[in-house]
Amino acid sequence: MTPRRPFTGCGTALVTPFTVSGRIDEAAVRRLARRQIEAGMHFLVPVGTTGEAPTLSAAEKRVVVELVVDEVKGVVPVLAGAGGYDTAEVIESAHAMAAAGANGILSVSPYYNKPTQEGLFQHYASIASNTNLPIVLYNVPARTGSNIEPATTERLAQLPQIVGIKEASGNVFQIADVRRRVPADFLVLSGDDTLTLPVMALGGEGVISVAGNEVPSDMARLVEACERGDFAAARVIHQRLLPLLQANFLESNPGPVKAVMALAGLLEPTYRLPMVAPTSHSLQTLRRIALDLGLLAETTSA
């Protein structure tokens, strides 16, 4: 079997489990990472947005990545989150992720200070010149307040250190334009579970998935069906999961996905402010969808 190229296929944007007292639940980090491997996930993405990186200290991020790296034992690559609005701090974070054993970094574009396209280019070029790790760009305008435009991605794709982009703009036209502009070996990954199938139909190489925390084997099979061109099979999985994929964003991520995992007994329903548990109305919806998919029965009987 030909080895899979790193960061292709389905990668789970791992949640960060906390104890009831709010500390990192190290045993749960290991347990959830093992669960991903056993389900056939292709790569793991700790300490990103879904991992509540904004409320983790630099030391905590490093601990989480070290735990995941140690648990997966090289079976799949680890793409650690390392992004922010201060280029110098992001470079320091990239160094820390390298020391923790990560195989690459996922770097969200600068938020709040809204750099120009030239500023975005120079930000990423500076990171690329200061780390040996491969870099996957992360474009999520709804969270950052700025968009990495296709022409900027095209420029950045010329830098050897930058190997791909997680596109979470939700704009299929833009994603298609990015795919058209960048070299064939530059990775275009969906940043939205609901758009995995169309992005891969356009030539994308996979997804960085939130739902992978809840239904890892299903998400991996969806992506593998797309990879072999069996879009009929992919559609069946996509349509069955769609209510869950949508419900994961009833409220701010990762509130809903952690709530479903808590209902399934996979972690404590603990959040760090300003993130809070979903409302009772949202919880009822999430519980119904999880029951319809058989998630609660499956996990509680495991």
Describe this structure in words.
- The structure is a single chain.
- With 302 residues, the protein is α/β, with parallel strands linked by helices.
- The protein has one domain (9-230): TIM Barrel (Alpha-Beta Barrel).
- Helix content is 46%, strand content 12%.
- It has helices at 26-38, 58-72, 87-100, 117-128, 141-144, 150-156, 172-181, 196-201, 216-227, 231-247, 255-263, 280-292, 295-301, and strands spanning 9-13, 43-45, 79-81, 104-108, 135-139, 162-167, 187-190, 206-209.
- An 8-stranded parallel β-sheet has the order 2-1-8-7-6-5-4-3.
- Strand 6, helix 7 (172-181) and strand 7 (187-190) form a beta-alpha-beta unit.
- Helix 3 runs parallel beside helix 4, helix 4 packs parallel to helix 6 and helix 6 (150-156) packs parallel to helix 7 (172-181).
- The protein is globular.
- Mean pLDDT is 96; it is low at 298-302.
- It is found in: Cytoplasm.
- The active site is at residues 138, 166.
- Catalyzes the condensation of (S)-aspartate-beta-semialdehyde [(S)-ASA] and pyruvate to 4-hydroxy-tetrahydrodipicolinate (HTPA).
- This is 4-hydroxy-tetrahydrodipicolinate synthase.
- It catalyses: L-aspartate 4-semialdehyde + pyruvate = (2S,4S)-4-hydroxy-2,3,4,5-tetrahydrodipicolinate + H2O + H(+).
